Amino acid sequence: MKVSPYLLLILANLFWAGNWVIGRGMRADVPPMALSFWRWIVALLCLLPFAWPYLKKDWPALRAAWRPLALLGLLGTALYNALTYAGLQQTEAVNGVLLNSFIPVVIVALAWIFQGKRLRAIEGIGMTASFIGVLAIVARGDPATLLHLSLNFGDLLILVSVFVWATYTLLLPKRPAVHPFSLLFACASIGVIGLAPLYVIELAGGRHIIASPQAWLTIAYTGIFPALLGYIFWNKGVEQVGAARAGYFIHLLPAFGILLAALFLGERLLGFHFIGVALIFGGIYLTTRK
Fold this sequence. Notes:
single chain; 290 residues
Protein backbone atom coordinates (compact mmCIF):
# COMPACT_ATOMS: atom_id res chain seq x y z
CA MET A 1 0.00 0.00 0.00
CA LYS A 2 1.42 3.35 -1.06
CA VAL A 3 1.31 6.03 1.66
CA SER A 4 1.07 9.70 0.75
CA PRO A 5 4.38 11.52 1.35
CA TYR A 6 2.38 14.43 2.77
CA LEU A 7 0.86 12.13 5.39
CA LEU A 8 4.36 10.96 6.30
CA LEU A 9 5.54 14.56 6.72
CA ILE A 10 2.49 15.41 8.84
CA LEU A 11 3.02 12.39 11.11
CA ALA A 12 6.73 13.18 11.48
CA ASN A 13 5.90 16.65 12.77
CA LEU A 14 3.18 15.26 15.04
CA PHE A 15 5.70 12.89 16.65
CA TRP A 16 8.25 15.70 16.99
CA ALA A 17 5.65 17.98 18.57
CA GLY A 18 5.00 15.26 21.12
CA ASN A 19 8.74 15.19 21.74
CA TRP A 20 8.73 18.91 22.59
CA VAL A 21 5.72 18.59 24.89
CA ILE A 22 7.00 15.56 26.80
CA GLY A 23 10.48 17.06 26.92
CA ARG A 24 9.02 20.22 28.45
CA GLY A 25 7.01 18.28 30.99
CA MET A 26 9.99 16.12 32.03
CA ARG A 27 12.81 18.64 31.63
CA ALA A 28 13.67 18.56 35.35
CA ASP A 29 13.94 14.75 35.46
CA VAL A 30 15.66 14.04 32.11
CA PRO A 31 18.49 16.48 31.20
CA PRO A 32 18.82 17.52 27.53
CA MET A 33 21.95 15.61 26.53
CA ALA A 34 20.77 12.50 28.37
CA LEU A 35 17.47 12.60 26.50
CA SER A 36 19.22 13.16 23.17
CA PHE A 37 21.67 10.30 23.76
CA TRP A 38 19.35 7.65 25.21
CA ARG A 39 16.50 8.23 22.79
CA TRP A 40 18.83 7.31 19.93
CA ILE A 41 20.05 4.25 21.82
CA VAL A 42 16.40 3.15 22.12
CA ALA A 43 15.82 3.89 18.44
CA LEU A 44 18.87 1.85 17.41
CA LEU A 45 17.83 -1.14 19.54
CA CYS A 46 14.32 -1.08 18.07
CA LEU A 47 15.62 -0.63 14.54
CA LEU A 48 18.38 -3.26 14.56
CA PRO A 49 16.20 -6.39 13.99
CA PHE A 50 14.56 -4.74 10.96
CA ALA A 51 17.69 -3.07 9.59
CA TRP A 52 20.12 -5.99 9.94
CA PRO A 53 19.20 -7.82 6.69
CA TYR A 54 19.51 -4.57 4.73
CA LEU A 55 22.71 -3.48 6.48
CA LYS A 56 24.51 -6.59 5.27
CA LYS A 57 23.43 -5.92 1.70
CA ASP A 58 23.96 -2.15 1.82
CA TRP A 59 27.28 -2.16 3.67
CA PRO A 60 29.45 -1.54 0.54
CA ALA A 61 27.30 1.47 -0.44
CA LEU A 62 27.30 2.80 3.12
CA ARG A 63 31.06 2.47 3.41
CA ALA A 64 31.61 4.21 0.08
CA ALA A 65 29.36 7.11 1.11
CA TRP A 66 30.79 7.58 4.61
CA ARG A 67 31.40 11.31 4.12
CA PRO A 68 27.78 12.34 3.39
CA LEU A 69 26.58 9.82 6.01
CA ALA A 70 28.85 11.39 8.60
CA LEU A 71 27.43 14.83 7.81
CA LEU A 72 23.83 13.57 7.96
CA GLY A 73 24.42 11.76 11.24
CA LEU A 74 26.21 14.61 12.96
CA LEU A 75 23.80 17.27 11.71
CA GLY A 76 20.42 15.54 11.86
CA THR A 77 20.73 13.15 14.79
CA ALA A 78 23.35 14.81 17.00
CA LEU A 79 23.76 18.56 16.60
CA TYR A 80 20.15 19.52 15.90
CA ASN A 81 18.81 17.83 19.01
CA ALA A 82 21.70 18.86 21.23
CA LEU A 83 21.50 22.52 20.19
CA THR A 84 17.72 22.63 20.53
CA TYR A 85 17.60 21.07 24.00
CA ALA A 86 20.54 23.16 25.19
CA GLY A 87 18.93 26.32 23.84
CA LEU A 88 15.64 25.61 25.56
CA GLN A 89 17.46 25.52 28.89
CA GLN A 90 18.17 29.22 28.54
CA THR A 91 15.32 30.72 26.54
CA GLU A 92 11.55 30.88 26.66
CA ALA A 93 9.51 28.38 24.68
CA VAL A 94 7.90 31.24 22.70
CA ASN A 95 11.30 32.36 21.45
CA GLY A 96 12.31 28.80 20.61
CA VAL A 97 9.16 27.97 18.63
CA LEU A 98 9.34 31.26 16.76
CA LEU A 99 12.96 30.73 15.77
CA ASN A 100 12.27 27.09 14.83
CA SER A 101 9.52 28.27 12.46
CA PHE A 102 12.19 29.87 10.29
CA ILE A 103 13.32 26.41 9.11
CA PRO A 104 11.18 26.42 5.91
CA VAL A 105 12.42 29.91 5.04
CA VAL A 106 16.02 28.87 5.63
CA ILE A 107 15.60 25.70 3.54
CA VAL A 108 14.17 27.70 0.62
CA ALA A 109 16.87 30.37 0.98
CA LEU A 110 19.71 27.86 1.08
CA ALA A 111 18.20 25.92 -1.84
CA TRP A 112 18.04 29.18 -3.82
CA ILE A 113 21.61 30.18 -2.92
CA PHE A 114 23.36 26.84 -3.33
CA GLN A 115 21.08 24.83 -5.63
CA GLY A 116 19.55 27.48 -7.87
CA LYS A 117 15.96 26.57 -6.91
CA ARG A 118 13.26 29.06 -7.95
CA LEU A 119 10.34 30.07 -5.76
CA ARG A 120 6.98 30.29 -7.54
CA ALA A 121 4.61 33.12 -6.59
CA ILE A 122 1.99 30.74 -5.19
CA GLU A 123 4.68 29.09 -3.03
CA GLY A 124 5.70 32.49 -1.71
CA ILE A 125 2.08 33.28 -0.80
CA GLY A 126 1.65 29.91 0.88
CA MET A 127 4.90 30.27 2.83
CA THR A 128 3.83 33.73 4.00
CA ALA A 129 0.38 32.53 5.09
CA SER A 130 1.87 29.60 6.94
CA PHE A 131 4.43 31.77 8.70
CA ILE A 132 1.75 34.28 9.73
CA GLY A 133 -0.12 31.36 11.27
CA VAL A 134 2.96 30.50 13.31
CA LEU A 135 3.30 34.12 14.43
CA ALA A 136 -0.37 34.19 15.46
CA ILE A 137 0.19 31.17 17.69
CA VAL A 138 3.45 32.19 19.33
CA ALA A 139 2.23 35.80 19.81
CA ARG A 140 -0.96 34.47 21.43
CA GLY A 141 -3.06 36.75 19.22
CA ASP A 142 -1.27 39.91 20.39
CA PRO A 143 1.29 41.33 17.89
CA ALA A 144 2.82 43.40 20.69
CA THR A 145 4.17 40.16 22.17
CA LEU A 146 6.63 39.88 19.29
CA LEU A 147 8.07 43.31 20.04
CA HIS A 148 9.20 42.21 23.49
CA LEU A 149 11.16 39.17 22.32
CA SER A 150 14.92 39.46 22.77
CA LEU A 151 17.76 37.16 21.74
CA ASN A 152 19.96 35.53 24.35
CA PHE A 153 22.53 32.75 24.11
CA GLY A 154 19.80 30.12 24.14
CA ASP A 155 18.08 31.82 21.21
CA LEU A 156 21.35 31.80 19.30
CA LEU A 157 21.78 28.07 19.91
CA ILE A 158 18.29 27.38 18.57
CA LEU A 159 18.94 29.65 15.58
CA VAL A 160 22.07 27.62 14.81
CA SER A 161 19.98 24.44 15.12
CA VAL A 162 17.58 25.87 12.51
CA PHE A 163 20.43 26.15 9.99
CA VAL A 164 21.67 22.69 11.00
CA TRP A 165 18.29 21.09 10.26
CA ALA A 166 17.85 23.03 7.02
CA THR A 167 21.28 21.84 5.88
CA TYR A 168 20.46 18.25 6.87
CA THR A 169 17.24 18.38 4.82
CA LEU A 170 19.04 19.76 1.77
CA LEU A 171 21.76 17.12 2.06
CA LEU A 172 19.29 14.21 2.16
CA PRO A 173 19.26 13.86 -1.65
CA LYS A 174 23.03 13.17 -1.41
CA ARG A 175 22.43 10.06 0.69
CA PRO A 176 23.44 6.69 -0.78
CA ALA A 177 20.81 4.63 -2.57
CA VAL A 178 20.20 2.22 0.32
CA HIS A 179 17.19 1.00 2.23
CA PRO A 180 15.71 3.63 4.62
CA PHE A 181 16.41 1.35 7.59
CA SER A 182 20.08 1.10 6.65
CA LEU A 183 20.29 4.85 6.21
CA LEU A 184 18.69 5.66 9.55
CA PHE A 185 20.73 3.07 11.42
CA ALA A 186 23.97 4.43 9.99
CA CYS A 187 23.05 8.07 10.70
CA ALA A 188 21.79 7.29 14.19
CA SER A 189 24.95 5.37 15.03
CA ILE A 190 27.06 8.33 13.95
CA GLY A 191 24.78 10.64 15.90
CA VAL A 192 25.19 8.59 19.10
CA ILE A 193 28.97 8.76 18.71
CA GLY A 194 28.72 12.53 18.29
CA LEU A 195 26.42 12.90 21.32
CA ALA A 196 28.50 10.72 23.65
CA PRO A 197 31.08 13.43 24.55
CA LEU A 198 28.30 15.96 25.21
CA TYR A 199 26.52 13.46 27.47
CA VAL A 200 29.74 12.79 29.39
CA ILE A 201 30.25 16.53 29.90
CA GLU A 202 26.67 16.83 31.20
CA LEU A 203 27.24 13.96 33.65
CA ALA A 204 30.49 15.54 34.82
CA GLY A 205 28.54 18.71 35.49
CA GLY A 206 26.31 16.82 37.93
CA ARG A 207 23.15 16.50 35.83
CA HIS A 208 21.69 13.00 35.96
CA ILE A 209 18.40 11.34 35.06
CA ILE A 210 16.04 11.20 38.03
CA ALA A 211 14.92 7.58 37.80
CA SER A 212 11.15 7.07 37.67
CA PRO A 213 8.61 5.27 35.46
CA GLN A 214 7.81 8.63 33.85
CA ALA A 215 11.46 9.18 32.97
CA TRP A 216 11.79 5.75 31.31
CA LEU A 217 8.51 6.26 29.43
CA THR A 218 9.81 9.62 28.23
CA ILE A 219 12.95 8.03 26.84
CA ALA A 220 10.96 5.17 25.29
CA TYR A 221 8.50 7.53 23.57
CA THR A 222 11.19 9.84 22.22
CA GLY A 223 13.20 6.88 20.98
CA ILE A 224 10.37 5.10 19.17
CA PHE A 225 8.23 7.91 17.78
CA PRO A 226 10.23 11.13 17.24
CA ALA A 227 13.63 9.50 16.74
CA LEU A 228 12.74 6.30 14.87
CA LEU A 229 9.42 6.75 13.07
CA GLY A 230 9.73 10.53 12.79
CA TYR A 231 13.04 10.37 10.94
CA ILE A 232 11.98 7.47 8.72
CA PHE A 233 8.80 9.32 7.72
CA TRP A 234 10.62 12.64 7.23
CA ASN A 235 13.39 11.11 5.10
CA LYS A 236 10.86 9.27 2.94
CA GLY A 237 8.71 12.38 2.54
CA VAL A 238 11.69 14.51 1.53
CA GLU A 239 12.72 11.83 -0.96
CA GLN A 240 9.34 12.01 -2.70
CA VAL A 241 8.45 15.73 -2.61
CA GLY A 242 11.83 17.46 -2.34
CA ALA A 243 13.53 19.37 0.45
CA ALA A 244 12.05 22.82 -0.23
CA ARG A 245 8.43 21.63 -0.34
CA ALA A 246 8.87 19.34 2.65
CA GLY A 247 10.29 22.26 4.61
CA TYR A 248 6.90 23.98 4.73
CA PHE A 249 5.59 21.14 6.88
CA ILE A 250 7.86 22.26 9.73
CA HIS A 251 5.18 24.90 10.36
CA LEU A 252 2.99 22.08 11.67
CA LEU A 253 5.33 21.55 14.60
CA PRO A 254 4.19 24.53 16.71
CA ALA A 255 0.56 23.95 15.69
CA PHE A 256 0.64 20.34 16.87
CA GLY A 257 2.63 21.40 19.92
CA ILE A 258 -0.14 23.78 21.02
CA LEU A 259 -2.80 21.10 20.58
CA LEU A 260 -0.83 18.44 22.46
CA ALA A 261 0.03 20.87 25.24
CA ALA A 262 -3.68 21.58 25.67
CA LEU A 263 -4.46 17.86 25.83
CA PHE A 264 -1.64 16.63 28.06
CA LEU A 265 -0.36 19.68 29.94
CA GLY A 266 -3.71 21.36 30.55
CA GLU A 267 -2.90 24.50 28.58
CA ARG A 268 -5.94 26.39 27.27
CA LEU A 269 -6.83 26.36 23.57
CA LEU A 270 -7.98 29.84 22.47
CA GLY A 271 -9.31 31.46 19.30
CA PHE A 272 -5.94 32.54 17.94
CA HIS A 273 -4.79 28.92 18.09
CA PHE A 274 -7.52 27.88 15.63
CA ILE A 275 -6.77 30.88 13.38
CA GLY A 276 -3.07 30.04 13.38
CA VAL A 277 -3.62 26.37 12.61
CA ALA A 278 -6.00 27.28 9.77
CA LEU A 279 -3.41 29.62 8.23
CA ILE A 280 -0.68 27.01 8.56
CA PHE A 281 -2.70 24.29 6.83
CA GLY A 282 -3.88 26.77 4.20
CA GLY A 283 -0.32 27.81 3.47
CA ILE A 284 0.84 24.22 3.18
CA TYR A 285 -2.03 23.49 0.80
CA LEU A 286 -1.01 26.40 -1.45
CA THR A 287 2.62 25.35 -1.55
CA THR A 288 2.02 21.65 -2.19
CA ARG A 289 -0.91 21.62 -4.61
CA LYS A 290 -0.11 20.99 -8.25
